[in-house]
Amino acid sequence: MKKYILVFILPFILFYTSCKSQRNQNNEVTKEYKITSSYILIPVEEKSKEIKIAVQFPDKKTAEYYWIRIAEDKPDYWVKLDVGEYKNKTIKIGFENASQVSSGIEEIYQSDKFNIQYEETYRPDFHFSPEYGWMNDPNGLVYLDGEYHLFYQYNPYGNMWGNMHWGHAVSTDLTSWTYLPIVLKPDTLGDIFSGSAVVDVNNTAGFGKNAIIAIYTSNGKTQQQSIAYSTDKGRTFTKYNGNPVIPNPGIVDFRDPKVSWNAVANQWVMTLATKQTVTFYGSDNLKTWTKLSEFGDGIGSHAGVWECPDLFPLEYNGQTKWVLTVSLHGGPNGGTATQYFIGNFDGKSFKPDILPYPLWMDYGRDNYAGITWNNIPDKDGRRIFIGWMNNWDYGNNLPSKFFRSSNTIPCQLFLKNNGKHIILASYPVSEITLLRDKTFDKPDIHVSGESSINELIPNNNGSYELTFDIENINTNEFGFQLINNKNEFLKYNFDLLSGTLYLNRAQSGLTNFNDLFSLGMGAPLVLGEKYNVRLLIDKASAELFVNEGDVTMTSLFFPTEVMNKLIFYTKNGSINIHNIKVYDIK
Ligand code: FRU
To answer: Which residue minimizes the CA distance to atom 6 of ligand 1?
Structure first.
């Protein structure tokens, strides 16, 4: 009997092993690629459903799994798998639900070239954006030997969220960035979610003096905290074989460790987002962690799960205060935003000062999940912050193609009094002024009704900076509008009666990629005699700073033509506009 079975199935076995493509009953196709080139190129179409692929490299015990929108119809763009090191070897790729994208699978090919279409309408000039693919939160911000490292949540396989890796870039001046290879990719513990990095100056972890150690969330069946180390200035990382260093204790949302050396505690302190609180952990060696305390019940906004906390000291009137920032879905103007608390940290627990919480870092809709750099030298002493310039309400739908989303401008954080109470203010780092090219000085304007500047910059390419002072305020409502010839505009309205600064972007160009994009924004405005306005415009983003960070509003907009005209207006009464300067940005 056995003999007959063998005679019957042998031809099939032979057929399948010599064939480069196999299909099983679960509609799964496995293909073998004999590697001849540097890349395997895969066509992606954003409207396709994601399918799961399993990539089996010949030298790896386990496969790598990715979710890719393989083109069902016509590719929007291509993504690559780096395979150059496997020349003449065979890589197997399994495709789940293969029939749905069979034509796309057939189109996959090998090449030594991967064309990055860098230039597109909404590609920023002076903000960091990924070379291609999707980016969200900044991660692992750390300074070492003249380099500001920026790691970030990255999907190299598409322009929507998924397959979280850590991408990497460095800068020596916080204004121009060099792309470096991905440092962390998903593993058997899960995707690589947000986290931080430290320089282990005293070799507390035993990976080497001055090793950069990344502390991140492994997002698998549960969320747990893991570490990886680099002894080559952040170029490559090795995952610690004792991961996870903090296993999941039964909390679903348990992520985004921010670790810094804490001089008060005399140990490493981690802030971890734990559902709707921040849990503080302490460690001497970054490998074993002890819970110190938990903060957040009954204070601040609890409109959504807390994410990406950060804890750092700032000087205020000769005193050290501690600031705790937390991002969440449920910001003051809808969608995602970052709230903060100011108080004291005694090495174990955080005690907030009495303030009118919730307080928000930025009242625009597009500054999320920001954290601050570790290891900035004492002689510099700044607390530098960068956020993801996007909002989870519509982040995946932004009208860009080959890359999706950018970061805010790096800002220095300060504690100051806004006339009512202490606030956390942010203001662009001074290096940004070095980007200014030609300056266009405009004459002062007395505004009573409406006055405009018809051309801000000749041949404006859409990246520029605008500063002016609003003085002699003799009205309760006034504002300004950036506008183009198609009547697309961004409108900032100062309403002194309600003490609110409004931003309207409902008719700012492309808005219909998501219904929530057009919602208005409002920020609390403290009444003053004068308002200094600074606005950074970079193709598709507007970052407004009033009175050096008393009010910050970061907002995306997608004009179909550059807004090169400025209109000032008052409702009754008048204002004077002084010191109007427009800077072309290099
Ligand atoms: C915040 C966040 C984090 C998480 C990461 C995943 O935007 O949701 O909490 O670690 O994004 O990409």
So the answer is: 193
